[in-house]
From TrEMBL:
Region (Disordered): 170-215
Entry keyword annotation includes Signal: yes
Top-level taxon of the source organism: Bacteria
Keywords, sorted A to Z: Signal
Name of this protein: Uncharacterized protein
Source species: Streptomyces azureus
Record's signal peptide: 1-30
């Protein structure tokens, strides 16, 4: 075989190998989230007749232990038989989970965030047809030294009614992996945080003991206030007026 032909074959093999790596890595990233779930979701205000709005979050996300970065997909669905009209999806972070960006959405100003939250984005939707869904790529960080929660309310475009609210629902793990490249977190699981010294040398990474006090914080005060406000159809309109 000539050197020219050998080089061509070698180049084709390298290109094929590179393509395979790209495809496999992309597939692994997509599969990391697992099935979607509406766990922690509830109807707050009654939606217009024929409209049934819900949201979905992945059952599993993965947090890079070095950068603390993570990514997930937030989905809003209309399971009814009539179009929704103008609505908006909100993506809000609590405690150790901070929402950094939601593709195609705008950040919520700090004075308009619900009490207890650290970040949030608003995603206006002109109309969600019956039986259709719309998904958003969410970039976030997760401090494994804390617990972390996320909330997905679906509101009328003017914010006066909340038709559906998922959360604040926790992501977490009962088996932290501070020495691994990444830690998988499960939806609806309360995190047992790693110690503040998670960046110390090997042997210094000890996991804190968790007692009854930690176990008795299913949603926290912020979550309770959110649910109370949502049930009244007010969510954070009082904060906006202030």
């Amino acid at each position: 075989m000539s050197s020219r032909r050998t080089a061509a074959v070698t180049g084709s093999l390298v290109a094929a190998s590179f393509s395979a790596v790209v495809i496999l890595s992309g597939t692994a990233g997509a599969e990391d989230e697992g099935p979607a779930s509406n766990k922690g979701g509830k109807v707050v205000d009654e939606a217009p007749a024929g409209v049934k709005l819900t949201t979905l979050l992945p059952e599993k996300i993965s947090v890079d232990n070095g950068s603390e970065k993570t990514a997930l997909t937030a989905t809003v669905k209309n399971e009814g038989n009539k179009d929704s009209g103008k609505i908006k999806l909100l993506v809000v972070g609590f405690d150790g989970l901070t929402v950094k960006n939601v593709q195609g959405c705008s950040p919520i100003a700090g004075n308009n965030l619900p009490e207890g939250s650290n970040s949030g984005f608003s995603c206006p939707i002109d109309n969600l047809a019956a039986g259709k869904s719309k998904s958003y790529a969410v970039d976030a960080t997760y401090d494994l030294g804390k617990t972390g929660k996320i909330c997905l309310p679906v509101q009328a475009s003017d914010g006066k009614k909340t038709f559906w609210q998922q959360g604040p629902v926790p992501f977490g793990t009962t088996n932290p992996s501070p020495d691994a490249p990444a830690t998988p977190l499960l939806l609806g699981t309360h995190n047992e945080p790693v110690s503040p010294g998670k960046g110390d040398s090997p042997g210094g990474k000890e996991l804190p003991k968790t007692g009854p006090a930690r176990d008795l914080l299913p949603l926290g005060a912020a979550g309770a206030s959110l649910l109370a406000a949502g049930a009244a159809g007010m969510w954070w309109s009082q904060r906006r007026q202030a």
